[in-house]
Amino acid sequence: MSLEVAVAAALFVGVLAYALFGGADFGSGFFDLTAGGARRGAELRTLIDHSIGPVWEVNHVWLIYCLVVWWTAFPESFAAVMTTLIVPLLLALLGIVLRGASFAFRKYSATLSQARTFGVVFATSSIITPFFLGTVAGAIASGRVPAGGYGDRWSSWLNPTSVFGGIIAVGTCAFLAGVFLCADAVRGGKPALASALRVRTIGVGLATGLVVFIALIPIEIDAPTLADGLERQAAPLIVCSFLAGLATLWLLWKERFALARLPALIAVATVISGWGVGQYPWLLVDEVRLADAGGAEATLQALLVAVAIAGVVVVPPLALLFRLTQTERWSR
Protein backbone atom coordinates (compact mmCIF):
# COMPACT_ATOMS: atom_id res chain seq x y z
CA MET A 1 0.00 0.00 0.00
CA SER A 2 1.40 3.41 -0.98
CA LEU A 3 1.69 6.28 1.46
CA GLU A 4 -0.96 8.21 -0.46
CA VAL A 5 -3.47 5.38 -0.17
CA ALA A 6 -2.70 4.87 3.53
CA VAL A 7 -3.25 8.55 4.30
CA ALA A 8 -6.39 8.64 2.14
CA ALA A 9 -7.73 5.65 4.08
CA ALA A 10 -7.06 7.47 7.36
CA LEU A 11 -8.84 10.52 5.94
CA PHE A 12 -11.82 8.46 4.85
CA VAL A 13 -12.15 6.96 8.33
CA GLY A 14 -12.70 10.52 9.54
CA VAL A 15 -15.28 11.10 6.79
CA LEU A 16 -17.15 7.98 7.88
CA ALA A 17 -17.01 8.93 11.55
CA TYR A 18 -18.35 12.42 10.84
CA ALA A 19 -21.06 11.04 8.57
CA LEU A 20 -22.21 8.50 11.17
CA PHE A 21 -21.92 10.35 14.46
CA GLY A 22 -22.27 13.89 13.17
CA GLY A 23 -24.97 12.65 10.79
CA ALA A 24 -27.10 11.23 13.59
CA ASP A 25 -26.61 14.55 15.36
CA PHE A 26 -27.68 16.64 12.34
CA GLY A 27 -30.59 14.33 11.60
CA SER A 28 -32.24 15.17 14.90
CA GLY A 29 -33.01 18.58 13.41
CA PHE A 30 -35.39 16.95 10.91
CA PHE A 31 -37.46 15.50 13.74
CA ASP A 32 -37.27 18.78 15.66
CA LEU A 33 -38.57 20.67 12.61
CA THR A 34 -41.43 18.23 12.06
CA ALA A 35 -42.31 17.71 15.73
CA GLY A 36 -45.29 20.08 15.64
CA GLY A 37 -46.26 23.04 17.78
CA ALA A 38 -44.82 24.02 21.14
CA ARG A 39 -47.18 21.78 23.11
CA ARG A 40 -47.43 18.78 20.78
CA GLY A 41 -43.71 18.69 20.03
CA ALA A 42 -42.45 19.41 23.54
CA GLU A 43 -41.81 15.78 24.50
CA LEU A 44 -39.88 15.00 21.32
CA ARG A 45 -37.80 18.19 21.51
CA THR A 46 -36.94 17.42 25.12
CA LEU A 47 -35.78 13.97 24.04
CA ILE A 48 -33.65 15.49 21.27
CA ASP A 49 -32.02 17.93 23.68
CA HIS A 50 -31.34 15.10 26.11
CA SER A 51 -29.93 12.80 23.41
CA ILE A 52 -27.55 15.13 21.61
CA GLY A 53 -26.69 17.48 24.48
CA PRO A 54 -23.56 15.63 25.66
CA VAL A 55 -22.13 15.01 22.16
CA TRP A 56 -23.23 17.71 19.73
CA GLU A 57 -19.95 19.63 19.92
CA VAL A 58 -17.74 16.54 20.10
CA ASN A 59 -18.81 15.32 16.68
CA HIS A 60 -17.11 18.26 14.97
CA VAL A 61 -13.76 16.81 16.05
CA TRP A 62 -14.08 14.56 13.00
CA LEU A 63 -14.68 17.49 10.66
CA ILE A 64 -11.58 19.27 11.96
CA TYR A 65 -9.60 16.03 11.64
CA CYS A 66 -10.68 15.62 8.00
CA LEU A 67 -9.80 19.18 7.06
CA VAL A 68 -6.36 19.06 8.71
CA VAL A 69 -5.43 15.70 7.16
CA TRP A 70 -6.72 16.78 3.74
CA TRP A 71 -4.87 20.08 3.48
CA THR A 72 -1.68 18.60 4.94
CA ALA A 73 -1.56 15.46 2.80
CA PHE A 74 -3.19 16.65 -0.43
CA PRO A 75 -2.81 20.44 -0.45
CA GLU A 76 -3.35 21.06 -4.16
CA SER A 77 -6.63 19.13 -4.28
CA PHE A 78 -7.74 20.87 -1.10
CA ALA A 79 -7.09 24.26 -2.71
CA ALA A 80 -8.92 23.17 -5.87
CA VAL A 81 -12.02 22.17 -3.92
CA MET A 82 -12.02 25.29 -1.75
CA THR A 83 -11.71 27.67 -4.69
CA THR A 84 -14.36 25.87 -6.74
CA LEU A 85 -16.90 24.94 -4.07
CA ILE A 86 -16.57 27.93 -1.77
CA VAL A 87 -20.31 28.72 -1.96
CA PRO A 88 -21.71 25.42 -0.62
CA LEU A 89 -18.84 25.13 1.85
CA LEU A 90 -19.56 28.58 3.28
CA LEU A 91 -23.27 27.75 3.47
CA ALA A 92 -22.47 24.52 5.31
CA LEU A 93 -20.20 26.43 7.69
CA LEU A 94 -22.95 28.99 8.28
CA GLY A 95 -25.32 26.14 9.08
CA ILE A 96 -22.87 24.65 11.60
CA VAL A 97 -22.41 28.00 13.36
CA LEU A 98 -26.12 28.86 13.43
CA ARG A 99 -27.02 25.37 14.57
CA GLY A 100 -24.65 25.43 17.53
CA ALA A 101 -25.62 28.95 18.60
CA SER A 102 -29.36 28.38 18.34
CA PHE A 103 -29.17 25.03 20.16
CA ALA A 104 -27.50 26.78 23.09
CA PHE A 105 -29.61 29.94 23.04
CA ARG A 106 -32.92 28.04 22.89
CA LYS A 107 -32.32 26.72 26.40
CA TYR A 108 -31.99 30.23 27.81
CA SER A 109 -34.75 31.99 25.88
CA ALA A 110 -36.69 34.53 27.91
CA THR A 111 -39.94 34.06 25.99
CA LEU A 112 -41.71 31.33 24.05
CA SER A 113 -41.37 33.29 20.80
CA GLN A 114 -37.60 33.46 21.27
CA ALA A 115 -37.45 29.72 21.92
CA ARG A 116 -39.48 29.08 18.76
CA THR A 117 -37.20 31.31 16.68
CA PHE A 118 -34.05 29.59 17.92
CA GLY A 119 -35.74 26.23 17.45
CA VAL A 120 -36.53 26.95 13.81
CA VAL A 121 -32.96 28.12 13.19
CA PHE A 122 -31.58 24.99 14.87
CA ALA A 123 -33.81 22.64 12.89
CA THR A 124 -33.34 24.38 9.54
CA SER A 125 -29.57 24.63 9.86
CA SER A 126 -29.47 20.93 10.84
CA ILE A 127 -30.94 20.16 7.41
CA ILE A 128 -29.08 22.61 5.20
CA THR A 129 -25.65 21.67 6.56
CA PRO A 130 -25.66 18.01 5.47
CA PHE A 131 -27.37 19.04 2.23
CA PHE A 132 -24.56 21.39 1.22
CA LEU A 133 -21.88 18.94 2.36
CA GLY A 134 -23.59 16.35 0.17
CA THR A 135 -23.49 18.70 -2.82
CA VAL A 136 -19.74 19.08 -2.30
CA ALA A 137 -19.29 15.30 -2.40
CA GLY A 138 -21.42 15.16 -5.54
CA ALA A 139 -19.37 17.87 -7.24
CA ILE A 140 -16.12 16.01 -6.56
CA ALA A 141 -17.57 12.65 -7.61
CA SER A 142 -18.97 14.00 -10.89
CA GLY A 143 -15.64 15.49 -11.98
CA ARG A 144 -16.60 19.15 -11.70
CA VAL A 145 -13.56 20.26 -9.68
CA PRO A 146 -10.66 21.05 -12.03
CA ALA A 147 -7.14 20.17 -10.89
CA GLY A 148 -6.12 23.82 -10.94
CA GLY A 149 -9.16 24.95 -8.97
CA TYR A 150 -11.38 27.94 -9.68
CA GLY A 151 -14.09 25.90 -11.39
CA ASP A 152 -17.55 27.26 -12.01
CA ARG A 153 -18.91 28.61 -8.73
CA TRP A 154 -22.49 27.51 -9.43
CA SER A 155 -22.76 24.69 -11.93
CA SER A 156 -20.08 22.76 -10.00
CA TRP A 157 -22.62 22.00 -7.27
CA LEU A 158 -25.98 22.80 -8.87
CA ASN A 159 -26.24 19.63 -10.94
CA PRO A 160 -28.06 16.27 -10.69
CA THR A 161 -25.29 14.36 -8.89
CA SER A 162 -24.74 17.11 -6.31
CA VAL A 163 -28.44 17.68 -5.65
CA PHE A 164 -29.08 13.96 -5.21
CA GLY A 165 -25.99 13.81 -2.98
CA GLY A 166 -27.43 16.55 -0.81
CA ILE A 167 -30.85 14.92 -0.56
CA ILE A 168 -29.31 11.53 0.27
CA ALA A 169 -27.13 13.16 2.95
CA VAL A 170 -30.19 14.72 4.60
CA GLY A 171 -32.13 11.47 4.38
CA THR A 172 -29.41 9.27 5.82
CA CYS A 173 -28.83 11.72 8.67
CA ALA A 174 -32.54 11.77 9.51
CA PHE A 175 -32.75 7.97 9.30
CA LEU A 176 -29.81 7.48 11.66
CA ALA A 177 -31.20 10.04 14.09
CA GLY A 178 -34.61 8.40 14.07
CA VAL A 179 -33.19 4.98 14.91
CA PHE A 180 -31.15 6.34 17.81
CA LEU A 181 -34.01 8.51 19.08
CA CYS A 182 -36.31 5.48 19.14
CA ALA A 183 -33.82 3.61 21.31
CA ASP A 184 -33.36 6.66 23.54
CA ALA A 185 -37.12 7.06 23.97
CA VAL A 186 -37.52 3.45 25.11
CA ARG A 187 -34.56 3.75 27.45
CA GLY A 188 -36.09 6.91 28.87
CA GLY A 189 -39.40 5.18 29.61
CA LYS A 190 -41.40 6.78 26.75
CA PRO A 191 -42.78 3.87 24.69
CA ALA A 192 -45.56 5.94 23.09
CA LEU A 193 -43.03 8.44 21.76
CA ALA A 194 -40.83 5.61 20.52
CA SER A 195 -43.80 4.11 18.67
CA ALA A 196 -44.57 7.42 16.95
CA LEU A 197 -40.90 7.91 16.02
CA ARG A 198 -40.76 4.35 14.72
CA VAL A 199 -43.37 5.01 12.05
CA ARG A 200 -41.71 8.23 10.91
CA THR A 201 -38.24 6.66 10.86
CA ILE A 202 -39.43 3.76 8.74
CA GLY A 203 -40.95 6.28 6.33
CA VAL A 204 -37.71 8.26 6.17
CA GLY A 205 -35.72 5.06 5.61
CA LEU A 206 -37.94 3.88 2.77
CA ALA A 207 -37.90 7.30 1.10
CA THR A 208 -34.12 7.63 1.40
CA GLY A 209 -33.52 4.14 0.04
CA LEU A 210 -35.77 4.92 -2.90
CA VAL A 211 -33.89 8.16 -3.62
CA VAL A 212 -30.54 6.31 -3.50
CA PHE A 213 -31.61 3.90 -6.20
CA ILE A 214 -33.37 6.56 -8.29
CA ALA A 215 -30.15 8.61 -8.16
CA LEU A 216 -28.30 5.82 -9.98
CA ILE A 217 -30.20 6.73 -13.18
CA PRO A 218 -29.02 10.37 -13.62
CA ILE A 219 -25.56 9.49 -12.26
CA GLU A 220 -25.07 7.19 -15.27
CA ILE A 221 -25.18 10.27 -17.49
CA ASP A 222 -23.97 13.01 -15.18
CA ALA A 223 -21.11 11.15 -13.48
CA PRO A 224 -20.11 8.19 -15.70
CA THR A 225 -16.81 7.52 -13.93
CA LEU A 226 -18.54 7.22 -10.57
CA ALA A 227 -21.35 5.15 -12.08
CA ASP A 228 -18.83 2.72 -13.56
CA GLY A 229 -17.14 2.36 -10.17
CA LEU A 230 -20.45 1.81 -8.39
CA GLU A 231 -21.33 -0.96 -10.84
CA ARG A 232 -17.94 -2.64 -10.48
CA GLN A 233 -15.71 -2.40 -7.42
CA ALA A 234 -18.31 -0.74 -5.16
CA ALA A 235 -21.21 -3.04 -6.06
CA PRO A 236 -20.76 -5.35 -3.01
CA LEU A 237 -20.92 -2.32 -0.71
CA ILE A 238 -24.14 -1.09 -2.33
CA VAL A 239 -25.69 -4.54 -1.91
CA CYS A 240 -24.52 -4.65 1.72
CA SER A 241 -26.08 -1.23 2.33
CA PHE A 242 -29.37 -2.43 0.86
CA LEU A 243 -29.43 -5.56 3.03
CA ALA A 244 -28.44 -3.64 6.18
CA GLY A 245 -31.16 -1.10 5.45
CA LEU A 246 -33.75 -3.87 5.14
CA ALA A 247 -32.54 -5.39 8.43
CA THR A 248 -32.87 -2.01 10.14
CA LEU A 249 -36.41 -1.51 8.86
CA TRP A 250 -37.39 -5.01 9.99
CA LEU A 251 -35.96 -4.45 13.47
CA LEU A 252 -37.77 -1.12 13.70
CA TRP A 253 -41.02 -2.78 12.67
CA LYS A 254 -40.49 -5.40 15.39
CA GLU A 255 -39.65 -2.59 17.88
CA ARG A 256 -36.14 -3.93 18.50
CA PHE A 257 -34.76 -0.43 18.63
CA ALA A 258 -31.48 -1.11 20.44
CA LEU A 259 -30.55 -3.83 17.95
CA ALA A 260 -31.55 -1.64 14.98
CA ARG A 261 -28.75 0.82 15.67
CA LEU A 262 -25.96 -1.46 14.39
CA PRO A 263 -27.43 -2.31 10.95
CA ALA A 264 -28.45 1.35 10.56
CA LEU A 265 -24.83 2.39 11.03
CA ILE A 266 -23.70 -0.34 8.63
CA ALA A 267 -26.23 0.74 5.99
CA VAL A 268 -25.05 4.34 6.03
CA ALA A 269 -21.35 3.45 6.34
CA THR A 270 -21.44 1.10 3.35
CA VAL A 271 -23.31 3.52 1.07
CA ILE A 272 -20.75 6.23 1.88
CA SER A 273 -17.90 3.76 1.43
CA GLY A 274 -19.44 2.86 -1.92
CA TRP A 275 -18.95 6.47 -3.02
CA GLY A 276 -15.30 6.43 -1.93
CA VAL A 277 -14.51 3.04 -3.45
CA GLY A 278 -16.54 3.89 -6.56
CA GLN A 279 -14.41 6.90 -7.46
CA TYR A 280 -11.07 5.20 -6.66
CA PRO A 281 -8.32 5.71 -7.91
CA TRP A 282 -9.38 9.33 -8.41
CA LEU A 283 -9.11 11.94 -5.67
CA LEU A 284 -10.70 14.58 -7.90
CA VAL A 285 -12.64 12.48 -10.39
CA ASP A 286 -11.31 12.66 -13.97
CA GLU A 287 -8.77 15.29 -12.88
CA VAL A 288 -6.34 14.10 -10.19
CA ARG A 289 -5.44 10.53 -9.28
CA LEU A 290 -4.81 9.70 -5.64
CA ALA A 291 -1.30 8.44 -6.39
CA ASP A 292 -0.36 11.79 -7.92
CA ALA A 293 -1.96 14.06 -5.32
CA GLY A 294 0.16 13.52 -2.21
CA GLY A 295 2.53 15.99 -0.63
CA ALA A 296 6.12 15.30 0.31
CA GLU A 297 6.92 11.76 1.44
CA ALA A 298 8.23 12.97 4.80
CA THR A 299 5.02 14.90 5.36
CA LEU A 300 2.85 11.87 4.67
CA GLN A 301 4.94 9.70 6.98
CA ALA A 302 4.78 12.25 9.79
CA LEU A 303 1.05 12.62 9.27
CA LEU A 304 0.47 8.88 9.64
CA VAL A 305 2.42 8.94 12.92
CA ALA A 306 0.34 11.90 14.12
CA VAL A 307 -2.89 10.09 13.15
CA ALA A 308 -1.79 7.00 15.10
CA ILE A 309 -1.03 9.08 18.19
CA ALA A 310 -4.33 10.92 17.87
CA GLY A 311 -6.12 7.59 17.63
CA VAL A 312 -4.59 6.45 20.91
CA VAL A 313 -5.24 9.75 22.69
CA VAL A 314 -8.63 10.79 21.30
CA VAL A 315 -10.58 7.68 20.33
CA PRO A 316 -10.81 5.99 23.78
CA PRO A 317 -12.31 9.06 25.51
CA LEU A 318 -14.77 9.50 22.64
CA ALA A 319 -15.74 5.82 22.85
CA LEU A 320 -16.28 6.17 26.59
CA LEU A 321 -18.42 9.28 26.07
CA PHE A 322 -20.68 7.53 23.56
CA ARG A 323 -20.91 4.46 25.78
CA LEU A 324 -21.99 6.57 28.72
CA THR A 325 -24.58 8.49 26.72
CA GLN A 326 -26.00 5.31 25.20
CA THR A 327 -26.37 3.66 28.61
CA GLU A 328 -27.63 6.75 30.50
CA ARG A 329 -24.82 6.44 33.04
CA TRP A 330 -23.85 10.07 32.44
CA SER A 331 -27.17 11.27 33.88
CA ARG A 332 -26.95 9.32 37.14
Automatic annotation (TrEMBL):
The protein's name in its UniProt record: Cytochrome d ubiquinol oxidase subunit II
Organism in which the protein naturally occurs: Nocardioides turkmenicus
Topology with respect to the bilayer: Multi-pass membrane protein
Keywords (A to Z) from UniProt: Cell membrane, Membrane, Transmembrane, Transmembrane helix
Origin organism lineage: Bacteria, Bacillati, Actinomycetota, Actinomycetes, Propionibacteriales
Keyword Metal-binding: no
Residues in coiled coil: none
Family: Belongs to the cytochrome ubiquinol oxidase subunit 2 family.
Subcellular location: Cell membrane
InterPro entries: Cyt-d_oxidase_su2
Annotated GO biological process: aerobic electron transport chain
